[in-house]
# Entry
Amino acid sequence: MRTALTDLVGVRHPIVQTGMGWVAGPRLVTATARAGALGILASATMTPEQLRSAVREVRSRTDAPFGVNLRADAGDARERVRIIVEEGVRVASFALAPSRELIAELKDAGVLVVPSVGARRHAEKVAAWGADAVIVQGGEGGGHTGDVATTVLLPQVVDAVDIPVVAAGGFHDGRGLVAALAYGAAGVAMGTRFLLTSDSTVPDAVKARYLAATAKDITLTRAVDGLPHRMLRTEMVAELEGGAGRLRALYGAVRRASRFRRLSGLSWPGMVRDGLAMRHGK
# Structure
């Protein structure tokens, strides 16, 4: 199937596998690229050294185009951009809108820039700054998300910009792709659907819990980091939302932050800096 997205990126199918932290690693991205879609590595949960290694691993397994997802507010965003440029990555996607300068730096190096947005005005802004395409995520999307339904947001953005628009939020099969194309999108981006594939390194027990869940088992919460998250209603979410008191909440936050630091390789100052930037939307 040929669309503006496939022509732009050089893939066979108008499908994007999103950059999910700890999920979108070399194995999943390689499988996605080999299948003809656009796989995106999640760099936010990697150190810069791990990112470079992951890019080289994918490159060693396939000649197909793939991308890397970045957090524009990360303190080391420019270091990660340098890795993308040096390693010849085809696409840079962003969880938050990158600056005009960052877009220009990537485009000057021949990298396609595809930010994710949750509002029409944000799509208009990044398009004016030179973004090559935009992923529009409606409120049905998993993880960090907005509150405007995909069916409302998508046509607004399609009518507002002249670059390819990729629809995200609630898509999981061919019917969704057909619907997105009917709205004027150039393709769809999916996260949870790829999380559940055999090439995903997510444990089978976790996949089983996703598959057993119904619509009533999904919640939208700000208890994780202050931003809206759509996620499974789990014991951890219930504990975070339970209002256990400030001291207990602080203890739990520090304990989980310590675990995250060990997993991510970040320093305490780096975590605090990135957390404050995320909170203030910088």
About this structure: The first helix runs from residue 4 to 9. The chain has a mean pLDDT of 91.
